[in-house]
Design brief:
The chain is built from eight helices and twelve strands. By secondary structure, it is α/β, with parallel strands linked by helices. The strands form three sheets. A six-stranded mixed beta sheet has the order 6-7-8-3-9-10, with helices on both faces. The longest helix has 17 residues. It starts with a strand and ends with a strand.
């Protein structure tokens, strides 16, 4: 695998309690690419992400992420090189800590402040929050932020360790239209800057930011389609993935879906 390959999954499968969750997964992601991962509920999206993020170990097959081959690399150190943004993280972060402290915790990938941080660390966290438009929320307890502000705080937190890979798992879940669009604008900016690869997981096609380049569609734990985003997110593929007639068009860089 070359240094330009961020993720290399070969013949990968995963079972839990005897149930097949993923099977026959072959997928490579290279630097400069940003992938949307699409699929119905139960298609295996989150499990695939957890393997790619070094949280789960596959039942069979080979997985290499950021040059580290599973079974030969320290997964804890690997996870420090990956930025996670997921609605599920919100419940694990202490609501009484300030927004600034939540972002600071991203330096060591901890849930809450565990280590001592320097003045330079704090300036970096402040700058990360300013990029998200949250400069007036530095001292606000995290639990008092709106959900949209919390999601943007998670994105700022994930930027702290200068990750090589971002994983966003249903990150727009629960956001209203205005908060969703503000959050997606920030995600798109991260993609445009291009310093790290992005994996954006959703089952809402209209959420996919314009800067994403590729798509992977899962169905029942296997890969239905993958490749360049325009050729992959077709009505035929999405109809097969979701089990109903779907029409797709793209306007101003965003995908729009209609039901036949």
């Amino acid at each position: 695998m070359t240094n330009d390959c961020l993720i290399d999954l070969a013949g990968l499968s995963f079972r839990r309690n005897g149930k097949r969750i993923l099977s026959g997964i072959d997928w490579r992601m290279f630097r400069g690419e940003h992938w949307a991962v699409i699929g119905a509920n139960g298609s295996g999206k989150t499990t695939l992400l957890q393997i790619a993020g070094g949280i789960l170990f596959p039942t069979a097959g080979e997985a290499t992420v950021l040059g580290g081959r599973f079974g030969e690399t320290d997964l804890f150190k690997l996870r420090r090189r990956i930025g996670w943004v997921a609605s599920a993280l919100l419940a694990r972060l202490p609501g009484h800590e300030s927004t600034l402290d939540i972002v600071l915790s991203g330096l060591k990938a901890t849930f809450g402040l565990v280590y001592e941080y320097s003045g330079e660390d704090r300036r970096l966290a402040e700058d990360s929050l300013r990029k998200m438009g949250l400069e007036d929320r530095l001292g606000t307890p995290f639990g008092l932020l709106s959900q949209g502000e919390q999601q943007k705080t998670l994105l700022a937190r994930s930027l702290m360790s200068s990750p090589e890979l971002f994983i966003l798992d249903e990150a727009c879940s629960g956001l209203d239209l205005s908060a969703r669009e503000a959050f997606l604008k920030e995600v798109n900016e991260v993609a445009v800057r291009g310093r790290a690869g992005i994996i954006f997981v959703t089952h809402h096609i209209e959420e996919i930011p314009p800067a994403l380049t590729h798509a992977l569609i899962l169905r029942e734990g296997g890969i239905l389609a993958r490749g360049g985003i325009e050729k992959t997110l077709t009505g035929e593929n999405l109809s097969s993935a979701f089990g109903l007639g779907v029409e797709v068009e793209r306007k101003a860089g965003r995908f729009l879906v209609g039901i036949k």
